[in-house]
Design a protein that fits this description.
Shape: globular
CATH class: Mainly Beta
Largest sheet: 12 strands, antiparallel, barrel
Keywords: Signal
Radius of gyration: 18 Å
Number of domains: 1
Order of helices and strands: HEEEEEEEEEEEEHEEE
Number of strands: 15
Number of helices: 2
CATH topology: Porin
Strand order of the largest sheet: 2-5-6-7-8-9-10-11-12-13-14-15
CATH architecture: Beta Barrel
Pfam families: Gcw_chp
Oligomer: single chain
Distance between the termini: 41 Å
Length: 245
Amino acid sequence: MLRKIAAAALGIGLLASPAAAQVELGSGFSATGTVIGTTDYVFRNISQTRSRPAIQGSVELSHEIGLYVGAFASNVTFPNTNARQEVDGIVGYRRTIDSFTFDISGVYYGYPGYTAQPGQYEIAFAEAILKLKYELDPVTFVGTAAWSPDYFGSSGNSVWLEAGIDWKTPVLDAVLSGRIGYQWIDNNARFGAPDYLAYSIYLTVPIRYGFSVGGGFYGTDISQSQCGGLKVCDNRFIAFASWTF
């Protein structure tokens, strides 16, 4: 049974939102937040909601020296479990030098209310993440590396590597983004899916007052039979709307 839920469950959403506006709080502190409505919640291109809509929210408190703390929440639906929400805690350090930005963080992916039944494993886990960004207007190059000592479902060591590009188009300041990544998992049998390739292309269009809309294509090279017979690993189109404050 865990093979069926493991392929569906992982943490923070992939959906892109525009650069966050910040509320200055004084003494070097600032805050920002985002609310997203999406037709599907995917993480590393695997659905967390069994191809159903999700409402998500995130907040971040940062200081001008680069330190920040944040949180993310979303509804989830994992087969054969009572997990219905995800709440993540984030702490990190971000610094920009000229056109280059690096971001080192630790994330704890929590699922309040989840109770492991006989034969199930703990689904909460933690990751260390490094994000790099280089801006060469109108193009931004991005990269992510993530490592967990004990991934979802107690599936052991995992490594995620991703590279991508964002192009700010001359039309409506829309951003066209492409991503390609690869996920390695130590215990594939317990995780419920093989190591896999993930790829996506999506468009984000800012409107005004912090609102944006967008959508795109998200896929993996995992077949349905390799995903426990579920459709959560299938290729899919997703639409989303966000408000940043």
